Amino acid sequence: DANMIVVVSAALNDGKSTVVANTAMAAAREGNRVLVVDADFGNQSLTRALVGDIPPPAGLTEAVDSGLPLRQAVTSVPVADGTTLGLLSRGQRPVVAANFFRSAATRVFFESIRDEYDVILIDTPPLLHVAYASSIARFADAAMLVVSHNGSVSDLEEMVDRLNFIGTGSVGYVYNRSPLRADQLLTEGSLADILGSGERGAANGPAGKANGRRDRATVRTEKSVERTPR
């Protein structure tokens, strides 16, 4: 079964890190052992969302390059009622991200942690903007696509083509930042005509507001449409 999922978007500010955080919290509340990996070394917005502006003293770079045991590299993040999830942040060791994620040591590390968790979600840089994002996607069993309502169709198609090229299939997508008003769903530039208007549920998570307006996120998989907060 696929338990290592890379979460990707085509462009900046598609809400990908918030989707990772909320999905991880939901999975942890269901009793799963959950690890999130902040592999967006240039931004680290997932780490800030979960633990604030002061990054953990150790993380992925120490685990790979210094051999730090996984339990010491992972930061425990409380969720609710005593439930926690694990955060593997960037770490403090200086590395060149492109070389780091292409290295055999990093690939071996990701393979070694599969059995430690039920769910592993990897947050990446925008797939079409940062070259090493494709290297990260190769580690995963499958990809979850975060698609912004205001994103371009050509970017979506290019993102899917790139994932197919590297051999990472998709488990589904999150249609993010769709407007609440029905008359806005099919505005020019919307992806609704490609993805289908479907059924949309109001966001009620910590990212229920973005850019001064309420947004909604819809998760589609091959079998169902689920409502989820961003």
Structural class: alpha/beta
| Total number of domains | 1
Number of helical segments with 4 or more residues: 9
Low-confidence runs of at least 5 consecutive residues: 188-230
By CATH, the architecture is named 3-Layer(aba) Sandwich
CATH superfamily grouping: P-loop containing nucleotide triphosphate hydrolases
Q: How much of the polypeptide forms β-strand, as a percent range?
A: 15-25%
Query: In this structure, how is the largest beta sheet organized?
Result: 9 strands, mixed
CATH-defined topology? Rossmann fold
Number of DSSP strands? Answer: 11
Briefly, what CATH class? Alpha Beta
What is Rg? 17 Å
The averaged pLDDT comes out at 82
Please explain how this structure is put together.
The protein is α/β, with parallel strands linked by helices and 230 residues long. The protein is 30% helix and 23% strand. The chain contains 9 helices and 11 strands. It is globular and about 45 Å long. The model is unreliable at 188-230 (pLDDT under 50).
Brief rundown of the structure:
The chain has helices at residues 16-29, 45-51, 60-65, 70-73, 97-102, 104-112, 132-137, 153-166, 192-195, and strands at 4-9, 34-38, 75-78, 84-88, 119-123, 142-148, 170-178, 209-210, 213-214, 216-221, 225-227.
